[in-house]
Every structure is written in structure tokens, then in C-alpha cells.
Design a protein that fits this description.
Elements (H helix, E strand, L loop, with lengths): L3 E4 L2 E8 L6 E5 L10 H8 L3 E5 L16 H14 L5 E6 L1 H12 L4 E7 L8 H14 L2 H11 L2 H6 L1 H12 L3 H13 L13 E6 L7 H10 L4 E5 L6 H4 L1 H15 L5
Parallel strand pairs: 3-4, 3-5, 5-6, 6-7, 7-8
Antiparallel strand pairs: 1-2, 2-4
Helix pairs in contact: 2-3, 4-8
């Protein structure tokens, strides 16, 4: 579905589903994906919540502008989208790059958030040399050069055998990412440092991570958990970087339980 609105001077692709008067859950995608990465969460979430999915700048059907970007710019996009849709506050759920966006949003605009869920993300993504290598590969050989390594990091070896249909869907998402948008966001990730902002995050926060995530490992999640006062930490077994796909049932249960608790709902 392509539904666009002008926000922060770009056309942002979004989808808004679920009960009209319900609290809003906003889902923010990872690098090299689009909002369809959240497909397996929709049935569970829309039973109780209004769900806003969108493609981050340079991804999916959202406009690509000249880079480099910054994570602050991505957070400004999220704020502007909420304002354009006349949404006052949300439960914000971000995975990887979406989690970088969420950290800035929570630190700078806490009034916009009811709660925060940080999935398979970090406050620092060193070394810079790794990102420079990936940027060079994309520039010289296209996104195709990054597909194999990305899928290897994003899913466990066992899921590469049992989840082949899902892997093909994710492969298509990666290949659908434009080189310019990828590079601009990769530069933002390379240059960010958010660890000194964790103490500024005061909204209720869940930090969730796949136990076998090599990109944003459990150790990175523990840094977030220690730095964000009162945060909760959940580690999902048998999952790598996209537990919302690989361990969707467990992921949905943990996230929905956290959201319901913030709303005062027992079940």
C-alpha cells in the first residue's frame, strides 16, 4: 500500500490500521527494509491498538533526499509524521535503525512517547571502518553486493533452512532499497553516538534482543538497559537480528505484554 503525506519536507509512505480511537503504536523499520517487515505483528497489534507503520527516509516508498543523513534527522521525520497525522503521542517500537530513531525521539521529545520498545539496536555502531566498507561496496557494486552478508547476520543458520520463504521476502526488501538511501542512512549510523543520551530517556522502555544477534548483540542491549533508568530487558532465544520475523510468536507476546502493561491492561 502506498499512502503518502508531506512531513519534514519529504513525502513519507505510511500505513495506519486498527481501531480509530485506540492508543497508537508506531513501528519504525531497520536499514535496508520497509514497513512490511512488521507484517507478522499486525494481526496481534491491531486487535487492540491503532498501528502506524512508515518507511524511513531513503527506504521503501518514502522519498530519498541527498545524504548524508543523521539519526536526528530520522527522529525529526518521525515527529513530523505524527504531527502531520495529528497524532499526539505513541508507543514507539523501533528495530535496529528504527531503534536509533527511537532513542533520539525519546531523549528530545519525550512528550511524543507513551513508551519505547528498542529492538535489536544499540547506542553506538563501531567500527566506522566496517560502515565505510559497506558504503564502498554499495557504491561500487550496488545493493546486491550486501544481500548475502546481511541475510547471514539477520537470521540464525537454522532459520536459513526452515524459513526460506521468509528469507526470500526479506531478500526482496533489501534489493528494493536504493543505493542512495542506503548510503545516506549508513553514514548516519556510522557517525552516531547515542550512549550519552540514554540517561535522558525517561519514558517506560523495553529493550529486546535476539540471543544470537551478531549485528546488535546482547551486550549492546545490556548497555541500553543499564543506561535507561527503569528499563526492562528481554532476550529471545533462537533469534538473530530480526526476531520479529524469526521468533514472531515470542516477540509478539513480549511486546504486546509490555504495551498492555503501560495501558493498565492485564491480558
Amino acid at each position: 500500500m502506498v499512502l503518502k503525506i508531506k512531513a519534514n519536507n519529504i513525502d513519507i509512505n505510511y500505513c495506519l490500521e486498527g481501531p480509530a480511537q485506540a492508543p497508537v503504536v508506531m513501528l519504525s523499520n531497520s536499514l535496508m527494509s520497509n514497513y512490511s517487515m512488521w507484517d507478522y505483528q499486525m494481526q496481534v497489534l491491531t486487535a487492540r491498538y491503532r498501528v502506524l507503520r512508515y518507511d524511513q527516509r531513503g527506504h521503501g516508498a518514502t522519498q530519498t533526499t541527498p545524504g548524508p543523513y543523521s539519526v536526528e534527522l530520522l527522529a525529526d521525520d518521525a515527529c513530523a509524521l505524527m504531527d502531520a497525522l495529528d497524532i499526539g503521542s505513541v508507543h514507539f517500537v523501533g528495530l535496529s535503525m528504527g531503534g536509533f530513531t527511537g532513542q533520539i525521539l525519546a531523549a528530545k521529545n519525550p512528550e511524543k512517547l507513551i513508551s519505547l520498545v528498542l529492538c535489536d539496536t544499540a547506542c553506538d555502531m563501531q567500527p566506522k571502518s566496517l560502515w565505510n566498507e559497506r558504503i564502498a561496496a554499495a557504491r561500487e557494486k550496488g545493493i546486491e553486493a550486501l544481500v548475502s552478508g546481511t541475510l547471514e547476520r539477520w537470521f540464525t543458520p537454522s532459520f536459513h533452512e526452515t524459513g526460506r520463504e521468509d528469507l526470500e521476502k526479506v531478500r526482496s526488501m533489501i534489493l528494493g532499497t536504493g543505493v542512495e538511501g542506503y548510503i545516506a542512512c549508513a553514514q548516519a549510523i556510522r557517525d552516531m553516538f547515542l550512549c550519552d543520551k540514554l540517561a535522558e530517556i525517561t519514558v517506560p522502555t523495553l529493550v529486546l534482543v535476539g540471543a544470537e544477534d551478531p549485528a546488535c548483540p546482547v551486550s549492546a542491549a545490556e548497555v541500553l538497559h543499564r543506561g535507561i533508568t527503569g528499563s526492562e530487558l528481554a532476550v529471545l532465544a533462537n533469534a538473530a537480528h530480526l526476531p520479529n520475523i524469526e521468533q514472531r510468536v515470542a516477540f509478539n507476546e513480549v511486546v504486546l505484554g509490555f504495551l498492555n502493561k503501560q495501558q493498565g491492561i492485564d491480558k
